[in-house]
Amino acid sequence: MLTDILQAVFSALTVGSIYALVAVGVTLVYSATGIINFAQGEFVMLGGMIMVTLYGERHWPLVLAVPVTIGITAAVAAALMKVSYRPERNVSLVTVLIITIGASLLVSGSALKVWDGDVHRFPPFSGDAPVRLAGATVAPQALWVMATTAVVGVALALFLRFTIYGKAMRACAIDRGAAAIVGIRVKSMVLLSFVMSGALGCVAGIMITPLTMVDYSSGMLLAIKGFAAAMLGGMGNVVGAVLGALVFSFLEAFSVTFVSSSLKELVTFVVIILVLLFMPRGLMGPRRVEGLDEEDVLGH
Amino acid sequence: MLQTLTVVVALAGLALASVSGAVAAEPILIGVPVIFTGPGAFVGEAEKNTLEMLGEALNARGGIEGRPLKFIYYDTEGKPDVAVRLFKRLIEKDKVTAILGPTASWEAGPVKPIAEKEKMPTIMLASARAIIDPVARWVFKTPVEDRIVVARLLSHIKSAGLDQIALVTSQDGFGDGGRKEILEQAPEHGIKVVFDERYTMEDADLTPLLNKLKKTEAKAVVNWSSSRAPIVFAMNYKQVGLTLPHFQSHATLSKSFLDATGANAEGIMVAAQKIEGGALLSDADPQKKIISDYKAAYKAKWGKDANQFGAGAHDAFMILTAALRKAGTDPEKLRAAIEETRGYVGIGGVYTYSATNHGGLGKDSVVMYRATGGGWQLLK
Q: Cβ(B372)–Cβ(B275) under 8 Å?
């Protein structure tokens, strides 16, 4: 029994960290722009795919492969920002949403051409031999993922709260016009948030590929769980995103252990729907209204 | 003036062409509605490559009774509604003689009644049992169905003395199909399914499920899923320390599965068609030569490895052209000639169609493989 619970906890921490890395990227762009970036999963896919080529196949050293991979992905993210963010055109958020969905399809379609349709993986950083504790096991790569999530989560929360750039980013999310009036260069902030979320997604891809594999279409699968986690935690809140991801993964792992694997989604989503019914802005969402307003949706 | 001249030249060219006889004989049109875009694109590519390769060779030898074969390819996008529309278009507008396709089982279902109604000789490249059960007069298929693969797998499991199995399947069409067949056939083989759980393709960690499985009385584990799912499954299997005999579906029988899974694949067993084995087959195997010839020719022409989907197109091409040679293009005669195929040694197996069997393959078309040292070995 203890083993079961411990195994479920390990599994939940592993999976939760994966969801969290995606959710944090989603929430970061939302913080600065109010845009929900549906292409976030593609950054994860790109990170994994580029690493498969550079590290898995060409055997570049990690210290070289990782920065190059992050650089390429961040550049793609910047390009995405250039096409999707057009405040001067007064495009509604719904339009931007559709643009990011289109971008997501474009990126995964291109990946199919650049690479192939196969599932890929590269070896874990610290081998395959599982770490054992009281009969339960955890893969060493999962520890990497958990550590990365913890570091990224804390660093981002601090960045957004205490640095001038972080504050400027949040100001942009609350009111772009007001932010511009007080001298914040809104466009640069938005670009920064996209580049950071691209880099984050890429780091997620690099960390999780040895566990989850990667193929050209895996971005969307991850993105869906990432969005759900970000919503649950409260859009725009980094700590909330991590918390949401963990709640999500604990629900999944424990329903597999104590109910049934096939009912896992049912249990998980019933709980999530209930949470959102009673706390519409998520577990740690802001109490005041921000982001998608009625007028944003209808387009002024 | 220029226009008139062009017309005259064109007419002269036409006349010249018809004088030269065989070359200008009216081509026999074959419709090929398969998948060229989306996740299944590689399937359509292998099928088209195969048909192009075989068609070119046949036409260079003078075609069928002097008439060249001409393929009309359409992209069904893996969507049933598109497949139905294109299938109708091939019949009504292009007036093809026969159709090879579609590829996906979910496209095959809605297309089947159309082939039957329009009396169109059709050899499908999809594997679902529903294509040939119940038998439709005009519809045949070449790929082996799950039922036969599962029968071979279960008889192997039983003969190894493993009479209690744990079954883990994915919640999608592929997992559903395998699960249904295994649950249906297990009692016939004297095997008890003591654990029956499902998971989804996007699950990143299956250790809680496998931890549960560990406590059952199962003597072997069968996982039926495709794409990344079996890779995650195999890694977690080793991680939680499971050592029971481990069986996977034929979807894992590829080099890319082994590359991605690495040492965790060691010992995994699979029941699948012979094409992957190729060179490993015994010389006494009647299929060995045709399999190695096809794989070598495909690799030489396209620079890629052949796969089972191309193999299905190969066998369909051979069966169809043999029937065309025998019966010509009259639909009723052609259909009867296809149905009279007896003992054709193809890549998918030895095909014998009859009025009641439009699948043509038996359990001997499936062999057992075992992952050993990063490659697949044949099990005796």
A: no
Residue partners of B277: CB distance under 8 A and separation at least 6: B291, B367, B369, B376, B378
What's the gap in Å between the CA of B263 and the closest CA on chain A? Answer: 9
Q: Phi and psi (nearest 5°) for B160?
A: -85, 5
A14 pairs with which residues across the strands?
none
Run of H or E residues at B98: strand B98-100
Interface test with A, best of B170, B176, B211, B226 (most A CBs within 10 A): B211
CA distances from A41 to A154, A192, A240, B145, B227 (A): 21, 18, 19, 35, 18
Under a CB-based contact definition with an 8 Å cutoff, are residues A6 and A137 in contact? Answer: no
pLDDT tens for A162-217 read: 999 989 988 887 788 888 899 999 888 889 989 999 999 999 999 999 998 898 88
Coil, helix or strand at residue A187 = helix
B41 interfacial to chain A (CB closer than 8 Å): yes
pLDDT in tens, B247-274: 999 888 877 788 888 888 999 999 998 9
Contact B207, B229 (CB under 8 A): no
Estimate to the nearest angstrom the gap between the alpha carbon of A300 and the chain centroid: 30
For residue A134, give the chain B residue with the closest CA. B240
Residues A34-59: tens digit of each pLDDT: 788 889 999 999 999 999 999 999 99
- Give first-to-last CA distance, chain A, whole Å: 57
Q: Half-sphere exposure of residue A84, counting CA atoms within 13 Å on the CB side?
A: 29
